[in-house]
Fold this sequence. Notes:
There is one protein chain. The protein is an all-alpha fold and 196 residues long. It has two domains: 23-90, no CATH class; 91-167, Alpha Horseshoe (Serine Threonine Protein Phosphatase 5, Tetratricopeptide repeat), CATH 1.25.40. Helix content is 78%, strand content 0%. It is built from ten helices and no strands. It has helices spanning 2-18, 23-41, 47-67, 72-88, 92-105, 112-125, 130-143, 150-158, 164-167, 170-193. α6 packs antiparallel against α7 and α7 (130-143) packs antiparallel against α8. 28% of the residues are buried. The model is unreliable at 4-17 and 189-196 (pLDDT under 50).
Amino acid sequence: MKRLCALALALLVILSGCGKRTAKDYFSDAEKEYKAAKTVGDTLRDRSAMATLFQPALESYSKVVQEYPNDPLAERALFMTATIRNNEMRDPEKAVVAYKMYAEKYPDTKQAPIATFLVGYLYHNDLNQIDSAGTWYRRFLDRYPQHEMAVSAQFELSSLGKPPDELLPADSLGEQRQGVAEGNKAKKAGARQHPM
Length: 196
C-alpha cells in the first residue's frame, strides 16, 4: 500500500509539472510571433493595427520576464519588450519604462549602453523631458565613457533645449542659406527660359 501511495504521489508530481510552460517555451513563441508580426507589419501604417499585431509577441516576452526573472532568457526578453514598444508600437512612454528597467537590472550586458542611451534619447526627442534626458545622457557617459556612442551622448547632452539652427556651425548655416538662394535663382532663371 505504501508503495502504491508513493507511486501515485510521484505520478501526481510529474503530471502537475507537465502543464507549466518554461521560459524557453515562452521565448520561442515570442520569437515566432515577432517574426510573423514583422513580416506583416512592414506593410501597415496604422499604429493601432501595429500594436494589435505585435501584442502576442509582447505578451510572450513579458511572460518570460515576469515568470522567469532569473532565467538568462529574461534579459533578452526584456530588451525585446522595450524594442517592440519603441520601434514597432511607437510608444515612447512604455519604451522608456522597459529600457530603464533593462539598464538598471542588466548594467553590464552588451545592450545596457544602448538601453541607457535610448532612455535619454526618447526623453529628449520624443517626450521633450529635457531634465530627464540630461540625467540619462550623463548616466550613459558616467557608466560607458569609452562606448562608441559616447560622442553621440555628449552631442545630445550639449544640444538639450537648443533649436536645430543653433546646432549647425555658422559656416554650414551660411553655406546652406547661400545654396538655397542660388537654387531659387536657378529656378527663376529656368522658369523665364521655359514659360509654361
